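Bug #77: duplicate submission created two jobs. Keeping one. Sequence:
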Amino acid sequence: MHHQPSGAAFDVVLLLHVACVLAGLVTTITAAATAARLQRLLGAGAPIPDALHRYFRPGVNWAGRAIYGIPVFGFALLAMSDGAYALGDGWVLAGLVLFVAAAALCEAVLWPAERRVQTAVSATGSDAGGPEVPDPKAGDVALMARAALVALALLLAGTVVMVAQP
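Kept job's structure:
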C-alpha cells in the first residue's frame, strides 16, 4: 500500500478534476432535462418558450466540453501521486474506459443532435405562437435526450468508480 498523496498542488489539481466532473454532470443533466421538456412541448403542439429558444441558441456547448478536463487532470493526478496510483490500477482503467465511452457518445451523438436541434429551434418563432420545430427534428430531440441520459449514466458510473477505488 502506497501513501496517500498530499500537498497543495495535488489538492488544487484534484479540485480541478472534480470541478470538471461536476461541470460535466450538470451540463449533461441540463441537456437531458431541456431536451425532455422540448420533447413534451412538441408532443403537445405547444409553442416553444423563450427560455428554450435561449438554451438552444446556436453555438458550441463549451460548458459540456469541460469533461475533457477530467482525463487531463486525472493524468496529472497520476503523475503527482508518487506511485500511489498508476494507470494499470483497475479502477483507473475502468474510469478511463467510462470517460472514453461518455466522450465518444457526446461527440458522436449528443452534441451533433444538439446542434441540429439548435438549428431547428432558432428557425422557429418565439413564444408568441410561432411555428414549431418540424416533425423530423423531433427525432433529434429524442436522440439528444436519450444520449444525454446515457452519457449521464456513464459519468455517474465513472464517478462511483473514482470515489470507491475498488
